[in-house]
């Protein structure tokens, strides 16, 4: 294993932060390249602990000679957000300097790459992947950033832009394990959903605002549209893994999740060691992200959930009450779709406009923005 340090630029005087990456390589290094990062939303900690176990386990795989490909692991991908403590609360989702969500606005660089590769591309898809990755990596390395948040995004892009498998470890407020992916990755991602015991897999061509896992796949899909006369595949399986809720941090869960991720790498022939369990069946069919019903608070009050995460709902099933103890009124919110209640708030006071619950319906609802702030 090699360890590399990537200083974050654009910081205040007298401060220093860095992204630390761990590189595991098989002797032949002829297999796929896997990129795994945790904590881009820095207050989502289950992934950091999973990364801790992944590191231990990958070291053993490397020592045993069962690593065929290459794995790049970043246990703490957002040291800027991890250090944002405000009035005793850790604020790791938004960059306090700019107000931007750390997991938005990743540059996709489609046009810049298209202009440079147009005269080089061939009739062979695999050859084109190599050419595009070389040009993309070169462009990213030459990008000049000013703000820390952009420096961080650029570093993560640089490290991941040639990965065949990209796993971005997140979590929700309170939730069951679920996945976000690009339509091009669905078939390849469902074995991962099955191994992890995910209860929903949500897919979208564009989730909105260029989040990390979206850009990894949509870059290729957009390049394909921009240069239709050349064969350009989507060579990256890109997925965000929502490792349950923010408080679901335990040795037991993290160790199991790490082992299941390694099992997925065994399925993908990144590791030659045998699966640790018999391959399970996925509990669900993937659903469009646009089919997700979001129950939104219309009035302020105390949130009282009537259903636990993981419950399968039918239209009309009551999900949550918001109680106003001054007027004595209770506003009840019911499911409008059939599907699993996969996430809900971890706070219990609602302001008007707050998302209360997410239900994975299977018919597109025609919503605008598909991700929460
Ligand atoms: Zn997140």
From TrEMBL:
Essential cofactor(s): Zn(2+)
Short name of one Pfam family: AstE_AspA_cat
CDD domains according to UniProt: M14_PaAOTO_like (cd06250)
Organism phylogeny: Bacteria, Pseudomonadati, Pseudomonadota, Gammaproteobacteria, Pseudomonadales
Protein name: Succinylglutamate desuccinylase/Aspartoacylase catalytic domain-containing protein
Keywords: Hydrolase, Metal-binding, Zinc
GO molecular function, one term: hydrolase activity, acting on ester bonds
Succinylglutamate desuccinylase/Aspartoacylase catalytic domain: residues covered: 31-265
Domain of life: Bacteria
InterPro entries (alphabetical): AstE_AspA_cat, N-alpha-Ac-DABA_deacetylase
């Amino acid at each position: 294993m090699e360890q590399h340090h990537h200083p974050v630029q654009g910081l205040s005087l007298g401060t220093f932060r860095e992204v630390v990456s761990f590189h595991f390589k098989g002797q032949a290094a002829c297999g796929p390249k896997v990129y795994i990062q945790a904590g881009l939303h820095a207050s989502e900690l289950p992934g950091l602990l999973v990364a801790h176990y992944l590191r231990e386990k990958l070291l053993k795989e490397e020592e045993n000679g069962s690593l065929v490909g290459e794995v790049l692991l970043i246990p703490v991908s957002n040291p800027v957000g991890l250090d944002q403590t405000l009035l005793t609360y850790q604020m790791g989702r938004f960059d306090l300097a700019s107000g931007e969500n750390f997991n938005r606005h990743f540059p996709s660089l489609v046009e810049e790459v298209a202009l440079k590769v147009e005269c080089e591309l061939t009739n062979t898809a695999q050859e084109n992947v190599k050419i595009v990755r070389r040009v993309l990596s070169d462009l990213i390395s030459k990008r000049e950033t000013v703000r820390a948040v952009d420096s961080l995004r650029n570093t993560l892009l640089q490290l991941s832009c040639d990965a065949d498998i990209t796993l971005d470890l997140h979590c929700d407020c309170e939730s069951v394990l679920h996945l976000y992916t690009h339509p091009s990755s669905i078939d390849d991602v469902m074995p991962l959903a099955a191994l992890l015991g995910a209860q929903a897999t949500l897919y979208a061509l564009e989730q909105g605002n260029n989040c990390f896992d979206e850009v990894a796949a949509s870059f290729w899909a957009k390049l394909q549209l921009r240069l239709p006369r050349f064969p350009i595949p989507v060579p990256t399986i890109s997925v965000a893994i929502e490792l349950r809720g923010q408080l679901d941090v335990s040795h037991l869960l993290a160790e199991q999740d790490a082992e299941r991720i390694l099992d997925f790498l065994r399925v993908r022939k990144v590791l030659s060691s045998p699966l640790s369990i018999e391959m399970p069946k996925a509990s669900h069919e993937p659903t469009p992200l646009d089919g997700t019903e979001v129950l939104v608070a219309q009035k302020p009050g105390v949130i009282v959930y009537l259903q636990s995460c993981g419950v399968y709902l039918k239209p009309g099933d009551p999900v949550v009450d918001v109680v106003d103890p001054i007027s004595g009124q209770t506003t009840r919110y019911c499911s409008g779709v059939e599907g699993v209640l996969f996430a809900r708030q971890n706070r219990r006071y609602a302001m008007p406009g707050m998302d209360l619950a997410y239900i994975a319906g299977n018919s597109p609802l025609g919503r605008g923005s598909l991700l929460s702030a």
